[in-house]
Design brief:
GO cellular component, one term: cytoplasm
CATH topology of the largest domain: Arc Repressor Mutant, subunit A
Protein name: Putative Fur family transcriptional regulator
CATH class of the largest domain: Mainly Alpha
GO biological process, one term: negative regulation of DNA-templated transcription
CATH architecture of the largest domain: Orthogonal Bundle
InterPro entries: FUR, Fur_C, WH-like_DNA-bd_sf, WH_DNA-bd_sf
Distance between the termini: 46 Å
Subcellular location: Cytoplasm
Length: 150
Amino acid sequence: MSNSHSHLREAIDVLKKTGVRITPQRHAILEFLINADTHPTADEIYRALEGNFPNMSVATVYNNLRVFREAGLIKELPYGDSSSRFDFSTSEHYHAICNECGKIVDFHYPGLDEVEHFAASVTGYEVNKHRLEVYGTCPECQAKNNTQNI
């Protein structure tokens, strides 16, 4: 069984246990998120699936994303603009974001877990999470820029 297939089965089991009915649209949105490595927006998910589900609306996508988020299956990544991105990987990790094309790549750096403890001791806050993003130019955009500069 492929890794994405087992993730899909586990996610469907979680939804069923919480009383969520598995509709064809819900299944397709979940499968798209599991297989996406781009951290898509709701609009991107809608555009990718609208050909298979002509009666599906953007509101359907948003509603399902809310259900998935509330079930703990996905993370919503708001980036200050009006369109959040969605990440199926809910394990603690960080993001590298391309300034040019917007591509987002996951990475993990366990040493940063200490930041929460340090912040709590310095500020007196009860810290419950943190978020780290690094920005730069992805390898594809670097290559494109290098060929344009020749």
